[in-house]
């Protein structure tokens, strides 16, 4: 999946760009503003908006001195469109939710790399740090089979290859504190989708439970602004 430009990946060309632009905005916007946000010419935008208005997915409102447009979010096809727009956030939630079914449940699951900073395209690796509890005994076969199934599910859900770095809590703490190579990037940009956050993993003060949710929400908002 092209998580950086999900709508254009599914609806190629100028029409995808225009629909993506309108999906980011709740207030009516002028044709010129829509074209600017979408990155298309006003002439292209005008040609595309007419049929979309006829279909009822876009409504036109005359606000002098210009016509303004907005997505009709109640339209039958608006919901799937908005879900495509939010594919990054929905996939992050899926990774955490399905990882919670592993036995034993991981201490932490942290996404890093291109998916974490919103630049993952079709074919980009999905990089994940999977942290096991140091002291927990587990059936190794059950654990490894579960991880393999989880990876396969994530690859099927995204269409992207999933690259997992698996360590226990002790090793995670040591490597994250070292701030060397990949671990510096994880500590700087990683997003926790399940379990304890990076501060706690490195032995710092326990972060509030909602901190990771706020970081994911903030990342979604940044991606939305990028279009």
Quickly list its features:
three-stranded antiparallel β-sheet; Beta Polymerase, domain 2; 227 residues; Arc Repressor Mutant, subunit A; 2 domains; alpha+beta; 51% helix
Kindly name the structural category: alpha+beta
Please tell me what the overall shape is.
elongated
CATH third-tier fold name of the largest domain: Beta Polymerase, domain 2
In total, how many domains does the architecture comprise?
A: 2
Main beta-sheet strand count, sense and barrel state: 4 strands, mixed
- Average pLDDT confidence is 88
Tell me the CATH architecture of the largest domain: 2-Layer Sandwich
- SSE series: HHEHHEEHHEEHEHHEHH
Low-pLDDT segments: 206-214
The helical percent reads: 40-55%
Separation, N- and C-terminal Cα atoms: 15 Å
How are the elements arranged and paired?
Blueprint: H1 6-10, H2 14-23, E1 29-30, H3 31-38, H4 42-55, E2 58-63, E3 66-71, H5 78-85, H6 87-99, E4 108-112, E5 126-132, H7 140-158, E6 162-168, H8 169-178, H9 182-189, E7 191-195, H10 198-201, H11 211-226
Helix pairs in contact: 2-3, 3-4, 6-7, 8-9
Write a short abstract of this structure:
The chain is of the alpha+beta class and 227 residues long. It has eleven helices and seven strands.
Architecture overview:
By secondary structure, this protein is of the alpha+beta class. The protein has two domains: 6-82, Orthogonal Bundle (Arc Repressor Mutant, subunit A); 86-226, 2-Layer Sandwich (Beta Polymerase, domain 2). It is built from eleven helices and seven strands. The strands form two sheets. Strands 6-5-4-7 form a four-stranded mixed sheet, with helices on both faces. A three-stranded antiparallel sheet has the order 1-3-2. Helix 2 (14-23) crosses helix 3 (31-38) and helix 8 packs across helix 9 (182-189). The longest helix has 19 residues, at 140-158. The protein is elongated. The chain starts with 5 loop residues before the first helix and ends with a helix. The relative contact order is 0.13. The model is unreliable at 206-214 (pLDDT under 50).
